[in-house]
Amino acid sequence: MTTEAVKSALRRQEIELPSWAFGNSGTRFKVFSQPGVPRSPEEKIADAAVVHRYTGVAPSVALHIPWDKVDDYAALAAYAKDQGVRLGAINSNVFQDDDYKLGSVTNPDPSIRRKATDHLLECVDIMDATGSRDLKLWFSDGTNYPGQDDIQDRQTRLATALKEVYDRLGADQRMLLEYKLFEPAFYTTDVPDWGTSYAHCLELGPKATVCIDTGHHAPGTNIEFIVAFLLRVDKLGAFDFNSRFYADDDLMVGAADPFQLFRIMNEIVRGDALDPDRGIAFMLDQCHNIEAKIPAIIRSVMNVQEATAKALLVDRDALRKAQQDGDVLGANAALMDAYNTDVRPLLAELRTEQGLDPDPVAAYQRSGYFEQITKDRADGQQAGWGA
Ligand code: AOS
Ligand code: ZN
Ligand code: ZN
């Protein structure tokens, strides 16, 4: 690919930001407060718009209901538009009520299943008002002890709830089904892996696709294989990008394993799936517990851009030829040459051409925005977890 073609693909790239990444967060041990943290959904959107202003590739913000509950979602969408961004995926939350101790849509109690399904349906109503395309579903449902509940019945309950919500989706709306190996359930999780998610999505129909959260696998899992498999059968709907060292660490994407991120983006480029028209949502799902949030999110966006630029630089003809010739080392070298390229000058040049500062983090630091929000916002909101 020529440098111009690489740049034009990068210009069209879109990365969605999670509203909750701007709020205070922590671990089960402590939620740390930071100065200047948003007090409302509007302020989270304003911060996301700042990230977009300095990077040029983050035009949408995912909401989490009820953390971002407002009376008028159409007005919130209009507010986002004024800020220069749009509202993205609606994330449901059926994991925070006492009622959900034994599960939400898989709970043995039908009245709790009804309550959970009603929340998911309410999220689709919100999508109608915000104009959002995607409903992102993550279920904490599972069990802690062998025998605690019937594993097969739970799958049936899950399928029933998903079907009801699927049938409520509008023509242009989609369902993204996220999976997670464990936590908070420690024995069984009802959607523990991509295969389970894929099987449910297949049963539901074309509007249901899999969301890959890069932090939700067992150590050593080959995530790019999952990407390749799902792309081929058109069942990859979205990513929740973040980094992990141990479990669902939610650290900045590309921080723990930039090579893995490159390998994932390499499959995306190979499958011609980078362009927004292809319909894959590239979202971040991160928590910035100890680092300053806005620059950390800018850095994360840049990490995705860097991995993407390297993937675009892979000499596809040379790679294909080496693969066909059985040239193992040559094929591997074609990938590694691209990965080892320093793409920062290319991205700096691209930003300058787009009228952006070549160094988005430095530009943000100089802008005075942090000083302003620190002054304006006393008592910032927690992202949503914990007390
Ligand atoms: C939870 O582990 C998942 O990553 C979900 O995407 C979740 O909804 C999000 O992290 C906000 O808590
Ligand atoms: Zn996630
Ligand atoms: Zn997660």
From TrEMBL:
One GO MF term: isomerase activity
Alphabetical list of InterPro entries matching this protein: L-rhamnose_isomerase, Rhamnose_iso-rel, Rhamnose_isomerase, Xyl_isomerase-like_sf
Keywords, comma-separated and alphabetical: Cytoplasm, Isomerase, Manganese, Metal-binding, Rhamnose metabolism
Official protein name in the record: L-rhamnose isomerase
Lineage: Bacteria, Bacillati, Actinomycetota, Actinomycetes, Propionibacteriales
